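Data card: per-record layout.
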Amino acid sequence: MNRLRVLLPVAVALLLCSAVLLAVGVDPLDYYAVVLRRGLLTTRGLQESLTRSAPLLLICASLLVSFRAGLWNLGVDGQFLLAAVLVAACCPLIDAWLGRGPALLAGLLIAPAAGAAWAALPAALRAWRGINEIVTTLMMSFLGVSLANTLIKLAFRDPDTTVPQTLTLAVEHRLPRLFGGTVHLGVPLALLVLLAVHLVLTRTSAGLRLRLLGESPRAAWHMGLAVPRLTATALLVSGALAGLAGGVDMLGVWGTMRADWNPAYGLTVIPVVLLARLNGFACAALALLLAVLSVGSESAAVRLGVPSYFNLVFIAAVLLPIAASGIWQRRHGR
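The structure for this 334-residue chain is written out next.
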């Protein structure tokens, strides 16, 4: 039954997207065939999909922590971008002074610290003032995106380039590649982090406390739990994991950050986590599916004339069956 609840929204989404493709004159089977071949069934495509899944996996871990605690961290994009710009600005300098190892280690420490710092204000306001974290994290996300672009254009701009961007970390000094391919070390690291978060949330007393907080803050109070501290901790850890996603993406793939770059992974991954029913293993599978769709749709856009962001239509289409499934389950439970 649980598998049906996950697969049914995907099946309905495929039907809805097929109807949209037919309406614009594109054969759905041709579209899905190109997406699968380009994103999964070729060596190059599979490597690109695995590489793109690294930040998605870490953002899944970030959202798992906040959602399990009953909190909505909608500031993931701001935390991601600020961590990315700080890593992109600092690591080339550290690499020039101290070498590759210290630069990579510093980047993996700077990124979660930046993400947690940007989540600190919403965490404090929610924990000790009861201010809705949806509003504060969204506001901080908008500020974070603007601040990241400002830093690139002013303080961190590479003076030797014509477009606003940070210094560039050399390809050979980025995260190591695995087995001579393009998949970097950040991919297994992200998967391990996601699975570790899942195990902590489902197999430890700390995870039990967070789940209890998410189910009923009042019950958590009556059981003697430090609700404000738990609330702040959940949002800080969520921000740190979102920041780590930005750092891994910079250190593994890009090596530099340009102004106005924003992949908007945060809001894209939210449906994935909800569809996975807050299960870390299901999140890993669906994050890979999202990466495959993202990589494959870029090729389909060129070959079939479909917009590259059509995969976002698929994600949006999944939300409708999820909502219908949730309503049905609540009514059935009554």
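Known properties of this structure: The chain is about 80% helix and 0% strand. Residues 55-292 form one domain.

See the next section for split statistics.
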